[in-house]
Amino acid sequence: MSSVQKGGMFQRVALIGIGLIGSSISHAMRRGGLAGSIVGHAKSVATRDTALRLGLISTAYASAAEAVAGADLVILCVPVGACGAIAAEIGPHLAKGAIVTDVGSVKGAIVRDVGPHLPAGVHFVPGHPIAGTEYSGPESGFASLFDNRWCVLTPPPETDPAATAKLKALWEAMGSNVEVMTAEHHDMVLAITSHVPHLIAFNIVNTAAHLERVTDSEVIKFSAGGFRDFTRIAASDPTMWRDVFLNNKEAVLEMLGRFTEDLIHLQRAIRYGEADTLFRLFGEAREVRKGVIQAGQDTAAPNFGREAGADARGKAK
Ligand code: NAP
Question: Which pTM does this prediction carry?
Answer without folding.
Answer: 0.92
